[in-house]
Amino acid sequence: MIEQVKARKGWAALDIDSPGQSKESAAKGREIASRFHECFRTEAGQFVLDRLIAITILRPTVTPGSTQFEAGIREGRADLVRQILTQIETAEKQ
Prior knowledge:
Blueprint: H1 2-7, H2 23-40, H3 43-55, H4 68-93
């Protein structure tokens, strides 16, 4: 990837788009965010999202007697819900 950046000459060298994300990739990202928004902003979707937040993000990651493995599993579940929230936020900013 760095070789592609080094190989740019002239005005192309001043291109502000990041070399790692093409316009097609950005469009796909916007489409994904839009679909998450479409799904979770319905009444049923909001109900499910509220439930997911309640059973993941609002619960402690580490509890007395829990192992690192159990804490990692809980954090992974919470991270998935945070990713959903991020996709919804991204779609609303478009």
